[in-house]
Design goal:
The structure holds 2 protein chains of 2 kinds.
Chain A: H1 5-14, H2 21-38, H3 73-77, E1 83-84, E2 87-88
Antiparallel strand pairs in A: 1-2
Chain B: H1 9-18, H2 23-35, E1 43-46, H3 48-64, E2 74-78, H4 105-112, E3 116-121, H5 161-168, E4 174-179, H6 185-191, E5 194-197, E6 217-222, H7 225-235, E7 265-269, H8 279-294, E8 298-302, H9 310-325, H10 345-356, H11 359-372, H12 377-399, E9 404-408, H13 424-428, H14 435-439, E10 444-451, E11 457-464, H15 469-483
Parallel strand pairs in B: 2-3, 2-4, 7-8, 7-9
Antiparallel strand pairs in B: 1-3, 4-6, 5-6, 5-10, 9-11, 10-11
Helix pairs in contact in B: 2-3, 5-6, 7-15, 9-11, 9-12
The chains are: A mainly alpha, B alpha/beta.
Chain lengths: 95, 493
C-alpha cells in the first residue's frame, strides 16, 4: 500500500501537527518504507485469534463512590500557558 | 571520597547502617561526580538539595534507629517521572518549564523508602528512541569508548540513556528507567550495567509521562542484580490510581536471591538467532548457556515461532497508543504554547505541536494516527493485537517447558552517535530481542556478559514467566557470578 503526499497531509491534519510541504514530501517515502515493513503482518493467519490488549490477567477494581481529591484549582492551573480568572484561556472559538 | 561513588546500593545501605560513612558523605561525593560530568549530558536538572536533605534525614534516622530500605542511597530519576517542584520534560520542548504539582507513584515510593534524588536524567524524547538522540536537550554521550584510541562518541542506548550513562560513569549507583520496547534493557546492555523490566503492572504508571500505555513499565537500573532487586522492591506495589496496577504482594526479591539453578530449565529460543548478528554476540550467548548449565540448569531448545512479527506489531501498537496519549499536548493545560498572530484554536494546536515535538515523536504520532484512521484500523491495529496474542501464546507454550529464556539483549554493541539516526527503520531493528517480551508483558532483565573485540560491553537477557521476577533475578545472578564482569569505562569526561 503506497501512501502519497495528500494522505500524509491529511494525517498531519488529523494529528493536529502543522507541516510544511517540504516536511510532507520528506515524510511520504519514510512512511512508505515503515508501512511496507509493517505490511508483513498480513502474512500471519490470525483467524479465530482474539485481539489482545491486556497482557497480564487483571481485574477491574471498583472503589467507593466518594470524592478523593478536588478543590485544587490553583494547582491544576499552575502550569497553564495562559490562565485567567481561574480558567484555562484559549483563543476565541466562537466568531 | 571518590571510592564512595564506586559503591552499589546494597553497599551504601549497609555502610550507612554500620556507620562506615555518613549518608551525607555519600551524597556529597555523588553530587560532586554529577557536577563534574557535564560532558556526558546525562542530567537535565541537578537537584543537590533534594539528595542532601534525604542524606541528612538518613543520618538522623540512623541515630534514631529508624533507617528505611534505601536510607542514604542517592539515585537518578529518569525525566519521565513527574517530580513535585522539579521540572519534568520527557526530554521534549513541548514540556519545557513543566513543573509538576504532584509526585509519580514510583518516585514517591522511592522517596518514602529513603532514597534521595540527584537529578532528572536525560532520555529519548517521550521515550521514543534507542540511542538517546531524540532528546530535545542534546545527546547523552556514553562514558564508554572503543579501544585503540577511537574517540567516536557512542550511544548510551535508549530510551533510558541518561540513566545508563550515569550509572556506568559512577554518577549514581542506581536510577529509574522505563521500558516500552526495551528502553531499560538495551541501554543497560550498551553500558555494561544491569536493568530489569518487571511484569507489566508491577510498578505504577501514575504520574509517569505516558508513551504506550499497554506496554510502558518502570524498572530499576544499577550495577548489580542485587541492587536491581533492592530498587525494584521499593518501586513495585499496588497503586489504586493506576487501573492496570497489579494487586499482588511484592516479594522480598533481595532475600530470595539464589544463583543455584538446580532443577531449573533454561530455554534457548531458536528464532532469536538472526542472520546479521555478530559472531561475538552468538559466542556470548553460547557462553551464557554454559554458565547457566554450570549453575545447575538444564538447557532446552525452544521455539517462539511468531518472533519475527513482534517488531512490526510493536511499531503499530506503540505509535497508535502514543498518538492517542500525546493528543493531550495541546498548548492549553501545560507545557509550551505556540500562538501565531491571528491563529484560531485549531491553528494553535497544530502550531504548538509542530513547534514542540521532535521529528521522531511526530513520525510516531503520524504513523499511529494513520493506522488508527477509518478504513485502516482493522488491517493494522486489530491485526497487530491479534499477532500480539499469538506472540504471548508462544511464550506460554515455551514456559510450559522451561522456567526462563536466555537471549542476547541487543543485536550489536553500542553504535556511534549518528550511525543510525538517518534511518528510522534501522534504529527500530535494534529492539528485535527486547520487544517480544514487552508485547507479552513479561519480566525481563539484561546483565552484562562480557566485552566485544572493541572493548564494548555486551548484554545477555533473561525473560521469565509473568510475576516470576525472582526466577529472572536468580538466573541473572547466576550469569553475573559466572561472567565476573568488572570492566568500567576509563574516565575522559
Amino acid at each position: 500500500m503506497s501512501v502519497d503526499t495528500d494522505t500524509v497531509r491529511k494525517i498531519s491534519r488529523l494529528a493536529r501537527i502543522q507541516m510544511s510541504d517540504a516536511e510532507i514530501e520528506a515524510l511520504a517515502p519514510e512512511f512508505n518504507k515503515i508501512l511496507g515493513w509493517i505490511d508483513q503482518l498480513g502474512e500471519v493467519d490470525t483467524s479465530g485469534v482474539e485481539p489482545m490488549a491486556a497482557v497480564v490477567p487483571n481485574t477491574l477494581r471498583l472503589r467507593d463512590d466518594v470524592v478523593t481529591e478536588g478543590g485544587d484549582r490553583d494547582r491544576v492551573l499552575a502550569n497553564a500557558p495562559q490562565a485567567e480568572h481561574g480558567f484555562f484561556a484559549v483563543p476565541k472559538v466562537i466568531e | 571520597m571518590s571510592e564512595l561513588t564506586n559503591l552499589g546500593v546494597a553497599e551504601i545501605r549497609d555502610g550507612v547502617k554500620a556507620g562506615d560513612f555518613s549518608a551525607r558523605e555519600v551524597a556529597e561525593a555523588h553530587v560532586e561526580a554529577v557536577a563534574a560530568a557535564k560532558a556526558l549530558n546525562a542530567f537535565l536538572v541537578e537537584t543537590p538539595d533534594h539528595v542532601l536533605a534525604a542524606a541528612d534525614a538518613a543520618d538522623q534516622a540512623r541515630a534514631a534507629g529508624t533507617l528505611k530500605p534505601l536510607s542514604g542511597v542517592p539515585i537518578g530519576m529518569k525525566d519521565l517521572f513527574c517530580t513535585v517542584g522539579v521540572q519534568t520534560t520527557a526530554a521534549s520542548h513541548i514540556l519545557e518549564g513543566f513543573t509538576p504539582t504532584y509526585e509519580s507513584g514510583v518516585s514517591q515510593r522511592l522517596f518514602d523508602a529513603g532514597a534521595g534524588m540527584l537529578g532528572k536524567l536525560n532520555m529519548d524524547q517521550f521515550a521514543m528512541g534507542s540511542s538517546n538522540e531524540t532528546s530535545a536537550f542534546g545527546n547523552v554521550i556514553s562514558p564508554w569508548r572503543r579501544g585503540g584510541g577511537d574517540n567516536a562518541a557512542l550511544a548510551p542506548g535508549g530510551s533510558s540513556g541518561g540513566s545508563s550513562a550515569a550509572i556506568a560513569a559512577r554518577l549514581c549507583p542506581a536510577a529509574t528507567g522505563t521500558d516500552t520496547g526495551g528502553s531499560i534493557r538495551q541501554p543497560a546492555a550498551f553500558t555494561g550495567i544491569s536493568g530489569i523490566k518487571p511484569t507489566y503492572g508491577r510498578c505504577s504508571r501514575w504520574g509517569t509521562v505516558a508513551f504506550a500505555s499497554s506496554l510502558d513499565q518502570a524498572g530499576p537500573m544499577a550495577r548489580s542484580v542485587r541492587d536491581c532487586a533492592i530498587m525494584l522492591e521499593a518501586m513495585a506495589g499496588l497503586d489504586p490510581r493506576d487501573a492496570t496496577s497489579l494487586d499482588a504482594p511484592v516479594p522480598a526479591w533481595e532475600q530470595g536471591l539464589n544463583a543455584d539453578l538446580k532443577g531449573k530449565k533454561v530455554g534457548i529460543p531458536r528464532e532469536y538467532r538472526v542472520e546479521s548478528m555478530p559472531a561475538e554476540i552468538d559466542a556470548l550467548w553460547k557462553r551464557g548457556a554454559e554458565w547457566l548449565q554450570d549453575a545447575g540448569a538444564e538447557i532446552v531448545d525452544v521455539s517462539l515461532p511468531h518472533t519475527k512479527y513482534a517488531l512490526p506489531a510493536y511499531y503499530i501498537i506503540a505509535p497508535a497508543e502514543a498518538s492517542s496519549n500525546l493528543a493531550r499536548y495541546d498548548g492549553v493545560r501545560y507545557g509550551q504554547r505556540e500562538l501565531p498572530d491571528g491563529a484560531n484554536l485549531q491553528e494553535m494546536y497544530a502550531a504548538t505541536r509542530a513547534a514542540g515535538f521532535g521529528p521522531e515523536v511526530k513520525r510516531r504520532i503520524m504513523i499511529g494516527t494513520y493506522v488508527l484512521s477509518a478504513g485502516f484500523y482493522d488491517a493494522y491495529y486489530t491485526q497487530a493485537q491479534r499477532v500480539r496474542a499469538l506472540i504471548s501464546r508462544d511464550f506460554d507454550e515455551a514456559f510450559a517447558k522451561v522456567d526462563v529464556l536466555l537471549t542476547p539483549t541487543a543485536p550489536s554493541a553500542a553504535f556511534a552517535l549518528g550511525d543510525k539516526s538517518d534511518d528510522p527503520l534501522a534504529m527500530y531493528l535494534n529492539d528485535v530481542f527486547t520487544v517480544p517480551s514487552s508485547l507479552a508483558g513479561l519480566p525481563a532483565m539484561s546483565v552484562p556478559g562480557g566485552l566485544d573485540d572493541a572493548g564494548l560491553p555486551l548484554g545477555l537477557q533473561i525473560i521469565g514467566r509473568a510475576m516470576d521476577e525472582q526466577g529472572v533475578l536468580n538466573a541473572g545472578l547466576a550469569l553475573e557470578q559466572h561472567a565476573g564482569f568488572t570492566a568500567r569505562p576509563d574516565r575522559w569526561w
